[in-house]
Write a structure and sequence with these properties.
Number of helices: 4
Order of helices and strands: HHEEEEEHHEEE
Helix content: 10-25%
Radius of gyration: 16 Å
Distance between the termini: 50 Å
Length: about 220
Amino acid sequence: MSQPAGAAGSVPDRSWFERPVLDVAADLLGSHLTHRTPEGTVTLRLTEVEAYGGADDPGSHAARGVTVRNRSMALAGGHLYAYRHLGLHTCLNVVTGPVGEPSAVLLRGAEVVDGSGLALARRTERGVVREERDLARGPARLAVALGAGVDHDGTDLLDAAEGLELRVSPDRGSGAWTSGGEVRRGPRVGVSGAGGDGALFPWRLWLADEPTVSAYRAVSSRRR
DNA sequence: GGTACGATTGTCT
DNA sequence: GACAATCGTACCT
């Protein structure tokens, strides 16, 4: 398959991922994530992410240290941390920081810029897709559209043989967007516990005016 | 060994 | 707007 003209961005190196998690999160917005499989290729443009730190972040999986589930968070930056939530859904994270310092960026929303037919087919298998913007709006939907699951946990994005490739948006300058919408910041979605009110950790980042950004939902109090 | 709960989503009212 | 689905992990006894 030939590279489309004007293919967005460049492939970052390891040091790009080993920066502070908030810096990486901000720079991931607008970046393109491609997954090549035998059935086809899907490329996403990331529009919404959330940053999660280590022991200092009470909302993070790593708040109580590295465990079997979150061990991928402590890998070198540039790896993928994928986990199953509620036994139903898969959520994808890009690991940041150096080895042994768990932190990651949760991919919450994206626009399908290539392979929308394949993404739609994958999503339709799991339910009804009402609008095209819903293809990858929400972390679990994003994972389905991309064709990634928990078996991609620990995958290295810098290893081309894995079929996953990240390209940083060419619009990214030194920390500020010049086009394509501005970066907004707010409390993280659905995080319960000490980090739930978002006052201390407004680490959800998204691009303003993007229809693929998921709606904010406060922590719901549900009976069991 | 047992139990509570979660970085969600889809459906029903 | 509210709730059920569903299961692996963490924590407690």
